[in-house]
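=== RUN LOG ===
request id: a7f3
mode: sequence -> structure
chains: 1
length: 255
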Amino acid sequence: MPDHASWLTLLLAHSEKTLSHNAEAIGQSVIGNKEADWHSFEPITAALSIGLLVVVLAFMTRARLAKVDEAVIPEDRLTLRTFMEAFLGFFYDLARGVMDTERAKRYFPIIGTSALFVFFSNVMALVPGFPVATSSLSITLGCALVVFILFNVYGLLANGTAYLKHLAGPAWYLAPLILPIEVISLCVRPITLAVRLMLNMSVDHLILAIFASLIAVLIPLPIMFLGIIVIIVQTLVFTLLTCIYIDLATAHEEH
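=== RESULT ===
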């Protein structure tokens, strides 16, 4: 989206002078970008807002489930508890379908957190004028790098040095050929995760913004419906690939 096109931009504009000074200082001293301005803070601010929202919703849901007498009785309407149970239950079943039940339960914190963060970040695309964190490559790449680091750590903890030996292939004389291919394949995973999510959400948010500007009175419902499909599909794809990468890293050598 162009500059000054979101409500968050307007909110940040109240402290434009301070943010511009800080952004310029950070850009020069850290990333060497002398043209950095206060607009650079918008994606990270949106991501932090979504992260805070996920934490608050998690604590609210936990508080409801802590009441054992009420938790065992299903609610007959859509509430925060029923939504979280259905949402996380779906992705837990997805993880269990990719890997075994024991590993699905062990690694579900990162899987469930990724699903929640990506979903709520994507949902912001349906709110006119609200920045979408997942339409920024820096945010999606950060999420993908977290997944990349963790599934490699999980692989080392589960299989030890056998995880590294697996990259060299089944025989030592094939290592010079297979090792570079495996390393490149491994390093490409976070890039594909990040770029796929960023491009889809950027295009979806751009199309919605264009139709919203063309139809100022009527809400572009067909486009918003397509946007909902994109949100669900992209959340599913990101989470499914996360499950697959964790499964490949933690599977025992005999499997």
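=== NOTES ===
The chain has ten helices and no strands.
The chain has one domain: 7-250.
=== END ===
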